[in-house]
Amino acid sequence: MTTDTIKQASGLLKQILSIPSISREETQVCSFIQEWFREKGFHVYRKNNNIWIKSLINENFPTLLLNSHMDTVKPSSDWTLDPYLPEIHGNKIYGLGSNDAGGALVSMIFAFLELNELTSRDYNLILVLSSEEEISGVKGISSVIEDLGKFDLAIIGEPTGMKMAVSERGLIVLDCVAHGKAGHAAHKNGENAIMKAMTDIQILDNLKFEKVSEFLGEVGVSVTQIEAGTQHNVIPDVCRFVVDVRTNEHYSNDEMLKIISSKISSEVIPRSMRLASSSLEMTHPLVLKAQKMGIETFGSKTLSDQALIPGPTVKIGPGMSERSHQADEYVLTDEIEQGIKLYTELLTGFKL
């Protein structure tokens, strides 16, 4: 990897950051990257605001997927810089989405370009640059999975400090409704739905799950919202509350729904069941290769497109998760250099 490669990667990142790409508004940045690849002679596939490029060696070889996302969250009000006017100060590149996940995005792009020239590879390669990751949108990565064909392993580019997430928590959101009977508060002649909800909330707060993950720990259940009552002197007949469930790889989302529904008397209505937990065996060839390179493995508590991609997956990339979604977000030029090197070295000579 040359100094010119780092300059090109940093320059591409600045161009990308200058184009607003809030989730569901990625059309312009997607078209820009699509044209960038076309000018380099690649055939670019596109669906919605997702693009992918294939580097095929042999149809009988396994296929690896590289994926990172183009979209960003909305800028917060406490930015002191223009979020869409990328600036370089020292070795920091500032701009909305620079850390999450611009650094990983351009690192994957330039690693893909290098690996594309490596004709001795024993695998096919697909680079997917997706949209709507920040909102887990239905027109993001999940909308193109079937179009990609069969693949055997996916590497998701996210800011992990170059550590490899071999597992990731899933997420279930449940809307629960406790039913009572309305009555006058002075006579207490109703059935207070709030009290029924409180009983169920206490059950959920004390709920323990037997299967504990080595990397992700226990399943986490939290009641995060509650709503009831119309006025002070009416005993409420309905109390609604929201339950946030962070799963580990030992429970499917359907299993978790059944367990929680069986424990409480309130009506349980699943709002989101799409985001599943994942885990890769420590004996997997990619994990073994990472360990030889001295890459630390961990379990990720933050969600990504890893939750929507079926099959074996890991998450790894330049930047730090703690910087994501913060004002005056930045990524280091050194991190981009390390990211390109990491992806390239990890997949050079790799056998699945």
Molecular structure report:
By secondary structure, the protein is α+β, with helices and mostly antiparallel strands. It has 2 domains: 3-167 and 278-347, Aminopeptidase (3-Layer(aba) Sandwich), CATH 3.40.630.10; 170-275, Alpha-Beta Plaits, CATH 3.30.70.360. It contains 8 helices and 18 strands. The strands form 5 sheets. A 6-stranded mixed beta sheet has the order 1-2-6-3-7-17, with helices on one face. A hairpin with a 2-residue loop joins strand 1 (45-47) and strand 2 (50-55). Helix 1 packs across helix 3 and helix 3 packs across helix 8 (333-347). The longest helix is centred in the first third of the chain and has 19 residues, at 98-116. The model has no long low-confidence stretch (mean pLDDT 96).
Secondary structure layout plus pairing:
Blueprint: H1 3-17, H2 27-39, E1 45-47, E2 50-55, E3 63-69, E4 87-89, E5 92-94, H3 98-116, E6 124-130, H4 145-148, E7 153-156, E8 164-168, E9 170-179, E10 183-184, H5 193-205, E11 220-228, E12 234-235, E13 238-247, H6 253-263, E14 267-275, E15 278-279, H7 285-292, E16 297-300, E17 313-315, E18 330-332, H8 333-347
Parallel strand pairs: 3-6, 3-7, 7-17, 8-16
Antiparallel strand pairs: 1-2, 2-6, 4-5, 5-18, 8-15, 9-13, 9-14, 10-12, 11-13
Helix pairs in contact: 1-3, 3-8
Q: Compute the gyration radius: what is it?
A: 23 Å
* Structural class based on helices, strands and sheet pairing: alpha+beta
CATH topology of the largest domain: Aminopeptidase
Q: Helix share of residues? A: 25-40%
The appropriate CATH architecture of the largest domain is: 3-Layer(aba) Sandwich
Q: How far is it from the N-terminal to the C-terminal residue, by CA?
A: 25 Å
The number of domains is: 2
How does the major sheet shape up?
6 strands, mixed
Strand arrangement, largest sheet? Answer: 1-2-6-3-7-17
Mean pLDDT: 96
The CATH homologous superfamily of the largest domain: Zn peptidases
CATH top level class name of the largest domain: Alpha Beta
- Gross morphology is elongated
Number of strands: 18
Strand content: 25-35%
Indicate the low-confidence ranges by residue numbers: none
The helix-strand sequence is HHEEEEEHEHEEEEHEEEHEEHEEEH
Question: Helical region count?
Answer: 8
